[in-house]
């Protein structure tokens, strides 16, 4: 490829030099001819203006040593003209460089000059090819008595042109040498940048790159040295929810401010960085390029994260079942001992207390929370909390009707907050987690308090960042996504998620969710049986 580029550039430089030389020589020849003809015309005008020349043509015969011949030869030698011919109105020469021609008729037509016109031309005569100038010869009264013809040898003009050609070629050769040097330097630079690949190889690589770029199931975003998006493949457009219109913009302009833009621009560094875009959990890696830009890759971990959360839920359920099994075994052993001791009344009372405790816990939740998913979640979490030695308490201010628009979203938010609270409170004295869930119009306000160590002020915003966690991650997935998802879900609904200090120590998470409740429907009409029953009650 290097040799091909060099040869092409040399050919272009040589062609330009030849063309420039030809374009210069063509007008130069015409200019030299024009200068020679004008010079001949000027000499003829000067000769015709000599005093007494017209009178001598009228008064003296055409002699080889006459006064007209002497004046003409004097002027010819002074001006280095090829010839100066003075003629009368008949075209008979009164002067000529060759004396034998004096008295003879001129060989070219003097009609235009004798008619009063000045003539410039290149023509052939007895002295060869010359640049000529002809003017009329007038007497003192202004009458034309003859003409003056001056010739400059055309060969001298051609000689000047040929003499100038070596200099022109020298300049052209210098320009060609400079062009060749520039072509060599450019070719070397192209060779280094293209790694000496042939044009066909580059074309093949580009085709392969396009196929791989848009065929892989991993998002690729390329940035230039100014930090603007230079390229993104189909998967990156799908994961980020953007299109080709963002090419040429910065990540902040394309995506808005946030962790995803910070990762792409390099403000957040590291490997396998977690970020959330919409409902997707992405793993991003960024690598700088030699030209000052960077290439970022994005992998979709949404499904993996969902599987991890399902695994966490399954483990929580297993822990709850294990706790219930352990507790059930202890109670069965106690009941067996009471029966073996024939303490039947005590056994009946013990069974009643156990059933009452479970019923009280479930009733405590369901009478405050009418949505079955949220109620079931809290009942299950209460069992896990008891196994871990934490008291899970539903606040007396809790009221949640069964009109949730998106129960699954609230389950995700509440589950994450309760899990974090249990982790924080476990092991602390008088470990306790309190859940408060109430509504104000169609807005739900969720508060989760714990008796753990609390969140330092400087970390209260950082904990909502994707990938940030104070706990060791489990084997199947990374931590640092739960609280980020909580805030993301809240902000997507126009709400907010904050953390502060709970009364008596610990942390208090507050989530505000506007428009989570559906509008209350009309009261259902009573059926005939219901109406009859109501009438019976009124009569009684």
Automatic annotation (TrEMBL):
One of its GO terms (cellular component) is plasma membrane. InterPro entries: HATPase_C_sf (IPR036890), HATPase_dom (IPR003594), His_kinase_dom (IPR005467), PAS (IPR000014), PAS-like_dom_sf (IPR035965), PAS_fold (IPR013767), sCache_3 (IPR033463), Sensor-like_sf (IPR029151). One of its GO terms (biological process) is regulation of DNA-templated transcription. It holds the Pfam family sCache_3_2. The chain crosses the membrane at residues 6-28, 168-186. It is a multi-pass membrane protein. SMART domains: HATPase_c, PAS. Its EC number is 2.7.13.3. It is found in: Cell membrane. Its main location: membrane. Keywords: ATP-binding, Cell membrane, Kinase, Membrane, Nucleotide-binding, Phosphoprotein, Transferase, Transmembrane, Transmembrane helix, Two-component regulatory system. It catalyses: ATP + protein L-histidine = ADP + protein N-phospho-L-histidine. Residues 518-540 are annotated as: Disordered. GO terms for molecular function: ATP binding; phosphorelay sensor kinase activity. Residues 525-540 have a biased composition (Low complexity). This is histidine kinase. It comes from Streptomyces lincolnensis.
């Amino acid at each position: 490829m290097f040799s091909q580029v060099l040869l092409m550039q040399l050919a272009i430089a040589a062609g330009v030099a030849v063309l420039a030389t030809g374009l210069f020589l063509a007008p130069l020849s015409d200019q030299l001819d024009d200068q020679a003809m004008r010079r001949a015309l000027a000499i003829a005008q000067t000769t015709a203006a000599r005093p007494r020349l017209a009178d001598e043509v009228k008064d003296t015969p055409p002699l080889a040593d006459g006064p007209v011949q002497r004046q003409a030869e004097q002027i010819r030698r002074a001006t280095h003209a090829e010839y100066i011919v003075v003629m009368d109105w008949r075209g008979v020469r009164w002067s000529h460089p060759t004396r034998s021609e004096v008295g003879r008729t001129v060989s070219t037509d003097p009609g235009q000059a004798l008619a009063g016109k000045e003539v410039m031309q290149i023509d052939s005569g007895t002295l060869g090819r010359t640049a000529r100038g002809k003017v009329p010869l007038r007497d003192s009264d202004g009458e034309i008595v003859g003409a003056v013809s001056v010739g400059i040898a055309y060969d001298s003009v051609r000689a000047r042109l040929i003499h100038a050609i070596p200099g022109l070629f020298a300049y052209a050769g210098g320009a060609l040498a400079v062009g060749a040097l520039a072509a060599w330097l450019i070719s070397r630079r192209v060779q280094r940048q293209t790694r000496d690949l042939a044009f066909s190889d580059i074309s093949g690589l580009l085709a392969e790159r396009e196929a791989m770029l848009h065929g892989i199931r991993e998002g690729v975003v390329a940035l230039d040295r100014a930090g603007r998006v230079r390229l993104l493949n189909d998967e990156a457009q799908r994961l980020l929810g953007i299109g080709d219109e963002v090419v040429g913009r910065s990540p902040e302009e394309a995506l808005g401010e946030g962790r995803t833009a910070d990762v792409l621009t390099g403000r957040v560094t590291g490997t396998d960085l977690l970020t959330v875009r919409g409902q997707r959990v992405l793993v991003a890696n960024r690598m700088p390029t030699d030209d000052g830009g960077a290439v970022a890759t994005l992998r979709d971990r949404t499904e993996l994260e969902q599987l991890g959360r399902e695994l966490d839920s399954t483990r929580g359920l297993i822990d709850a079942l294990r706790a219930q099994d352990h507790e059930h075994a202890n109670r069965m052993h106690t009941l067996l001992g009471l029966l073996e001791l024939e303490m039947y009344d005590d056994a009946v009372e013990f069974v009643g207390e156990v059933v009452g405790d479970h019923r009280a816990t479930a009733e405590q939740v369901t009478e405050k929370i009418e949505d079955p998913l949220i109620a079931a979640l809290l009942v299950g979490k209460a069992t896990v909390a008891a196994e871990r030695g934490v008291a899970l308490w539903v606040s007396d201010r809790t009221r949640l009707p069964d009109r949730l628009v998106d129960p699954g979203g609230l389950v995700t938010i509440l589950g994450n907050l309760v899990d974090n609270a249990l982790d924080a409170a476990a092991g602390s004295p008088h470990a306790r987690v309190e859940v408060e869930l109430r509504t104000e119009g169609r807005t739900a306000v969720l508060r989760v308090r714990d008796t753990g160590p609390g969140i330092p002020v400087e970390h209260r915003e950082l904990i909502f960042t994707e990938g940030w966690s104070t706990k060791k991650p489990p084997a199947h997935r990374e931590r640092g996504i739960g609280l980020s998802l909580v805030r993301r879900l809240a902000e997507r609904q126009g709400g907010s998620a904050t953390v502060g200090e709970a009364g008596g120590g610990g942390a208090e998470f507050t989530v505000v969710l506007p428009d989570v409740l559906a509008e209350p429907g009309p009261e259902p009409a009573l059926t005939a049986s219901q109406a009859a029953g109501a009438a019976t009650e009124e009569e009684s």
